[in-house]
Amino acid sequence: MATKDRVVPEERHYGDHRPYPDPPAHLEDLAGPDVCVVELPVTIDWGPKRRYDLSKEADRRIVYERVLREAASTDEVGQYVNGAALVAVWPRLWLPRRVRQRWEERFPELTPAA
Protein backbone atom coordinates (compact mmCIF):
# COMPACT_ATOMS: atom_id res chain seq x y z
CA MET A 1 0.00 0.00 0.00
CA ALA A 2 1.40 3.37 -0.95
CA THR A 3 2.01 5.90 1.82
CA LYS A 4 -0.64 8.26 0.45
CA ASP A 5 -3.24 5.47 0.70
CA ARG A 6 -3.03 5.05 4.48
CA VAL A 7 -6.44 4.73 6.09
CA VAL A 8 -5.26 5.91 9.51
CA PRO A 9 -2.84 8.83 9.66
CA GLU A 10 0.59 7.88 10.95
CA GLU A 11 0.31 10.17 13.99
CA ARG A 12 -2.76 8.32 15.37
CA HIS A 13 -2.12 5.45 17.74
CA TYR A 14 -4.52 3.25 19.66
CA GLY A 15 -2.97 4.23 22.99
CA ASP A 16 -3.68 7.89 22.29
CA HIS A 17 -7.43 7.27 22.14
CA ARG A 18 -8.27 4.36 24.40
CA PRO A 19 -9.86 5.08 27.76
CA TYR A 20 -7.65 4.94 30.83
CA PRO A 21 -8.84 5.47 34.40
CA ASP A 22 -8.38 8.98 35.74
CA PRO A 23 -5.84 9.55 38.50
CA PRO A 24 -7.47 10.19 41.89
CA ALA A 25 -7.61 13.65 43.44
CA HIS A 26 -4.82 12.83 45.93
CA LEU A 27 -2.09 10.21 46.18
CA GLU A 28 -3.44 9.39 49.64
CA ASP A 29 -6.62 8.16 47.90
CA LEU A 30 -4.54 5.24 46.61
CA ALA A 31 -4.99 2.99 49.60
CA GLY A 32 -4.09 -0.34 48.02
CA PRO A 33 -2.12 -2.93 49.92
CA ASP A 34 1.56 -2.33 50.54
CA VAL A 35 2.97 -5.80 51.16
CA CYS A 36 0.86 -8.87 50.50
CA VAL A 37 -0.17 -11.23 47.72
CA VAL A 38 -2.91 -9.91 45.44
CA GLU A 39 -4.86 -11.61 42.71
CA LEU A 40 -5.89 -9.33 39.89
CA PRO A 41 -9.29 -9.83 38.29
CA VAL A 42 -9.40 -11.18 34.76
CA THR A 43 -10.65 -7.77 33.58
CA ILE A 44 -7.23 -6.33 34.46
CA ASP A 45 -4.91 -9.29 33.92
CA TRP A 46 -6.01 -12.08 31.59
CA GLY A 47 -2.74 -13.99 31.72
CA PRO A 48 -2.24 -17.36 33.40
CA LYS A 49 -0.46 -15.80 36.40
CA ARG A 50 -2.75 -13.30 38.12
CA ARG A 51 -1.33 -13.60 41.67
CA TYR A 52 1.50 -11.26 42.62
CA ASP A 53 3.58 -10.73 45.74
CA LEU A 54 3.74 -6.97 46.33
CA SER A 55 6.76 -7.40 48.60
CA LYS A 56 8.73 -8.15 45.41
CA GLU A 57 9.43 -5.02 43.36
CA ALA A 58 9.13 -6.85 40.03
CA ASP A 59 5.65 -8.10 40.94
CA ARG A 60 4.63 -4.67 42.25
CA ARG A 61 5.69 -3.07 38.96
CA ILE A 62 3.69 -5.59 36.94
CA VAL A 63 0.59 -5.00 39.07
CA TYR A 64 0.87 -1.21 38.90
CA GLU A 65 1.50 -1.17 35.15
CA ARG A 66 -1.50 -3.40 34.48
CA VAL A 67 -3.82 -1.63 36.89
CA LEU A 68 -2.96 1.86 35.60
CA ARG A 69 -3.61 0.69 32.04
CA GLU A 70 -6.53 -1.69 32.46
CA ALA A 71 -8.60 -0.77 35.54
CA ALA A 72 -12.19 0.23 34.79
CA SER A 73 -12.25 3.16 37.22
CA THR A 74 -10.28 5.36 39.57
CA ASP A 75 -11.81 3.45 42.48
CA GLU A 76 -10.49 0.18 41.09
CA VAL A 77 -7.00 1.69 40.79
CA GLY A 78 -7.23 2.65 44.48
CA GLN A 79 -7.94 -0.97 45.44
CA TYR A 80 -4.60 -2.20 44.11
CA VAL A 81 -2.20 0.78 44.09
CA ASN A 82 -0.62 2.28 47.20
CA GLY A 83 0.29 5.97 46.82
CA ALA A 84 3.60 5.86 48.71
CA ALA A 85 4.68 2.68 46.93
CA LEU A 86 3.70 4.20 43.57
CA VAL A 87 6.08 7.13 44.12
CA ALA A 88 8.91 4.67 44.85
CA VAL A 89 8.45 2.55 41.69
CA TRP A 90 7.17 5.24 39.30
CA PRO A 91 10.48 5.82 37.44
CA ARG A 92 10.70 2.10 36.61
CA LEU A 93 7.14 1.60 35.32
CA TRP A 94 6.56 0.89 31.63
CA LEU A 95 3.43 2.91 30.82
CA PRO A 96 1.77 4.37 27.76
CA ARG A 97 2.83 7.97 27.20
CA ARG A 98 -0.65 9.36 27.85
CA VAL A 99 -1.00 7.50 31.16
CA ARG A 100 2.38 8.74 32.38
CA GLN A 101 1.59 12.29 31.27
CA ARG A 102 -1.80 12.42 33.02
CA TRP A 103 -0.43 11.05 36.29
CA GLU A 104 2.59 13.35 36.30
CA GLU A 105 0.38 16.37 35.57
CA ARG A 106 -1.81 15.50 38.56
CA PHE A 107 1.09 14.55 40.85
CA PRO A 108 4.28 16.56 40.18
CA GLU A 109 6.09 14.44 42.79
CA LEU A 110 6.06 11.60 40.24
CA THR A 111 7.98 13.67 37.70
CA PRO A 112 11.68 12.84 37.62
CA ALA A 113 13.90 15.63 38.92
CA ALA A 114 15.27 17.68 36.06
Main β-sheet description: 2 strands, antiparallel
Instruction: Tell me the domain tally.
Output: 1
Mean pLDDT: 89
DSSP summary: helix tally? 4
User: Distance between the terminal alpha carbons, to the nearest Å?
Assistant: 43 Å
What's the short version?
The chain is mostly helical. The protein has one domain (19-110).
List keywords for this structure.
single chain, 114 residues, mainly alpha, two-stranded antiparallel ribbon, 4 helices, 2 strands, globular
Describe the structure.
The protein has helices spanning 57-70, 74-80, 83-89, 97-106; strands at 37-39, 51-53. The protein has one domain. The protein is mainly α and 114 residues long. A two-stranded antiparallel ribbon has the order 1-2. It has 4 helices and 2 strands.
Topology (SSEs and partners):
Layout: E1 37-39, E2 51-53, H1 57-70, H2 74-80, H3 83-89, H4 97-106
